[in-house]
Design brief:
Helices cover 46% and strands 0% of the residues. The protein is built from 4 helices and no strands. Helix 2 packs across helix 3. The longest helix is centred in the C-terminal third of the chain and has 15 residues.
Length: 110
């Protein structure tokens, strides 16, 4: 098994290292899920559920050009888009195709 590396600096962890999170992931606030459910299921003044009103407000911001609001809505609807580093191009290319691409890159760098 390989050595574990610190996330920030790439240096391996050692026994007693101050970077190690000894307490683990913070505990979730007790009852938060139920509280959110109660708050978002409440009716608003105009008869809409609070969650519906929140989504409508988020949509209005997105339509006015708020990119963060757009990103939140699109990610929830369609899932987060993969970044280029997450896409495995080798599974879609043959060995011959990969060799050609590598040759082109190497020839351009010389």
């Amino acid at each position: 098994m390989g050595k574990l590396k610190g996330a920030a600096d790439g240096v391996p962890f050692k026994k007693g290292d101050a970077r190690i999170n000894r307490k683990g992931r913070p505990v979730k606030i007790r009852g938060l899920d139920e509280l959110l459910r109660d708050v978002l299921d409440e009716d608003t003044v105009n008869g809409l559920q609070a969650m519906h009103a929140v989504l409508l407000a988020l949509r209005a911001k997105a339509l006015k050009g708020d990119t963060r609001a757009s990103e939140l809505l699109l990610d929830r609807k369609y899932g987060k888009q993969k970044t280029l580093s997450e896409i495995d191009l080798t599974s879609q290319l043959s060995d011959t195709d990969i060799d050609k691409i590598c040759d082109r890159i190497l020839n351009r760098q010389q």
